[in-house]
Amino acid sequence: VGEILTLARLTAGSGDRAVQTLDLMDLLNEIVEDATFEAQARGIAVSHDRAAAFVAEVDGELIYRAFENVIRNALKYSPDNSRVSICSQIVDGTLRVTVTDEGPGVPVSELERIFQPFSRGTDAAALNGFGLGLAITRQAIEQHGGRVTASTAARGGLAVTLEIPQATAHKRGGAT
Fold first, then answer.
1. What are the pLDDT digits (tens) for 83-99?
2. Is the pTM value of this prediction over 0.90?
3. Is the residue at 75 inside a domain?
4. Three-state secondary structure along the chain?
């Protein structure tokens, strides 16, 4: 229910969000540390090729949830004894975070659909969830002037890329 309400608020653009000046790499590292610990139980190796500091004015809770949704999905759909790779880099004032897993991937025809509410890849039916995480991720990143894309990973898994521009990260819904 909480996820549905969050998505509804994000979609409607309603509600005042608390904007803080944060180093997004600190947020990302916290999530990666937790994910690394949890992944050990299944033999999943988590690596993070980390960018330098990236300070921006953002709604920290939304960005945290966006990062966490993508990383947790990568772990959820990865087989035991596989690898999840996170690569963060700063390109032309934009933080680009790519999370790649070695799971079943998503057919090219479904790559855009997985960001729609209540939609999941066809291979996801057996796992828990309602198909809201990536929809929330997309809305959260877009409200910060960024974008989220998915592609087929080189090893057959899924690669999800989140881009957050530093100069416009504090803008909401096109307003300045």
1. 999 999 999 999 999 99
2. no
3. yes
4. CHHHHHHHHHHHCCCCCCCEEEEHHHHHHHHHHHHHHHHHHHCCEEEEECCCCCEEEECHHHHHHHHHHHHHHHHHHCCCCCEEEEEEEEECCEEEEEEECCCCCCCHHHCCHHHCCCCCCHHHCCCCCCCCHHHHHHHHHHCCCCEEEEEECCCCCEEEEEEEECCCCCCECCEC
